[in-house]
Amino acid sequence: MQNFVFHNPTKVLFGRQTLAAIGSETRLLGKRALLVYGQESLRASGTLAQIKGHLHQAGVSCAEFGGIQANPLLSKVRQGILKVRAEEIEVIIGAGGGSVIDTAKAIAAGSMVAHDVWKFFTGKKSVRATLPLLAVSTLPGSGSEMNHGMVLTHDQSREKFGFGHRLLHPQTAILDPELTFSLPAEQTAYGAVDAICHILEFYLSTQDPDTPVQDRLMEGLINNGMEACERCLADPCDYEARASLMWTACLALNGLTAAGLGRIEMVMHLLEHSLSGLYDTPHGAGLAALLPGWLHHFARSRPERLAQLGAGLFPRSGTGDDRERRLNHCIEAFLGWLEAIQVPTSLEALQIPSQDHPRIAAHTSGLAKVWRMRQYSPAFFEDILQGCR
Amino acid sequence: MQNFVFHNPTKVLFGRQTLAAIGSETRLLGKRALLVYGQESLRASGTLAQIKGHLHQAGVSCAEFGGIQANPLLSKVRQGILKVRAEEIEVIIGAGGGSVIDTAKAIAAGSMVAHDVWKFFTGKKSVRATLPLLAVSTLPGSGSEMNHGMVLTHDQSREKFGFGHRLLHPQTAILDPELTFSLPAEQTAYGAVDAICHILEFYLSTQDPDTPVQDRLMEGLINNGMEACERCLADPCDYEARASLMWTACLALNGLTAAGLGRIEMVMHLLEHSLSGLYDTPHGAGLAALLPGWLHHFARSRPERLAQLGAGLFPRSGTGDDRERRLNHCIEAFLGWLEAIQVPTSLEALQIPSQDHPRIAAHTSGLAKVWRMRQYSPAFFEDILQGCR
Lengths: 389, 389
Hints:
Two copies of one chain form a homodimer.
Chain A: E1 4-6, E2 11-14, H1 22-29, E3 32-37, H2 41-44, H3 47-57, E4 61-65, H4 74-86, E5 91-96, H5 98-110, H6 118-121, E6 133-137, E7 149-153, E8 160-164, E9 172-175, H7 185-205, H8 212-234, H9 239-252, H10 267-279, H11 283-301, H12 303-313, H13 323-340, H14 357-370, H15 378-386
């Protein structure tokens, strides 16, 4: 186990009717709130009206800032920062999925500095303070509601970067599984894939050979994510399944799974960020489409880890002497699960032709260089992409 | 899954040489520290001198408050509170096992009130503020280093009560596995049993039938605890094993395992608190001695949970149609493990004769009543004790 610091101060309110606490919880953080949200679903489901009602009752004024898209954009964050200054906002609320909560984080941090907010994402500036932040999760997947990360896309360069800082933990996160009953099947599945890929990234990349606490935690969470996703797709209003998926996705990337594993470079996510930056692919769909290439890559580069994962997830692949066969069984079983939940499992399914591979690979290698991960050449990524046709 | 609030703001510094950070971390919390510790082992191992050196270097003055025993006493906490007031202490450091850290917590909370500190433990008063607290764990088991609980024994009445409040989380916890290399085998094993029993208590008592996230987490942690304990006993200086046990014990009772399980009454611990209150038994030894009775009790009252646990811990007991046989196999396998790590597995082994059972049962039922758990009669506890002869 490698040395680590674990510090996650977010207060999580989990369960039925917890949204009702948003008024009093926000009031603890400030009296003038900016409410960041996405497209029309929050309004259509009635959640937006509920939130505004609870805030009003608690004496919190609320400026709306909607229209955040998947793969959120820098330009939108800059607008949000201007709005915070114009309306003397004291607290930011992000109510939605990872894109919304990440936008809320970027506004909360960007409002406190004179420089452009993009400098956080290219590593040129660090965070020193943020406005207080409350997150309401309506789409389990990113884990942003209880972590210190945020991801943003530059409108022109199409660079999509993640950035983490301890001050980006929301003060409070409200996780009410009933708010996810209305999620379309597609988004439910993409969210589950995202959460599972966070864990896969850690599990398959760690170089530490002796991390049984983390390994069992991660195997358990992947199993939960798969099982809960299937149950949610079978019955979108299965409260227990929605709760299981929501808590699993939250724990998958709240710092616990990675604690003790050493430095993890999140290379799978880096490549997907190219896809969603360049093609505006939904993040979970991009990850699913890339998984065939990644799993084959790990079968070559980290066969012992993939074999261990297979034994944990698909017990039937865990026995027998022929490791090659066990690895193939694990990959097939995993891809079979992706097909069962009806997510794309190839770049072709995303209408990304193979002649684009060099461009994607070069773009990803460029992203890697900005964060000083110089060992990842375009050829490295082209090789992965080859496996995803 | 039941509704829950999860909020654990403790910052954990985990790993080799992390003790060196105690100076700067304490300095963030205050300039005048009370250093609470136990018997002579902290001095003998050189850790005490190291701590004092680091504090001095960081400009923190340090008043020593040693001599805390296992099953810590109210009288000692009262002395500590007087010392805090006399020396105008600003921050409390607890360096040791659960008894030391719990004493430090009680001093940190008791120093802020005019009433007697025992009123917290009998539920007559709640905590409103504490002095800041830093914990250095040298004995994995209690989990006190990263949780909001504390346990104390009344010198005269021999009542031993646990009490929890969110303000009792240490601000900072330093977990350096190398500090546990010198732990005697007995204490290593007692600590592991304590950590595992925290999880067993949750796992076997929850009334919620659908908690897969928590179940997998708990099964993984129990497995880790058992495995790591065996490795530590085989080689006390096995860093990875010490690290695994330390992080397992911390996660076992930091709020995560219980989140979503609903109300858990900790009845196993209540009965053990009678033993250690009345006979000054080491807590882990008392738990081990009581486990035969508890496991048979749960085989009758919660057979489905015990069978599920058996399948998770001892795969060979998890198959076959005959549930009775599987339950017996699980109990035997677990008791066999306790014997292998050489902890007492009967009250006789602790020199507690069966004619004392009525007295212990009556005492425990009295403890239960103080916290309004009136359904637990002396007869209920006598029945458990019968199974532990």
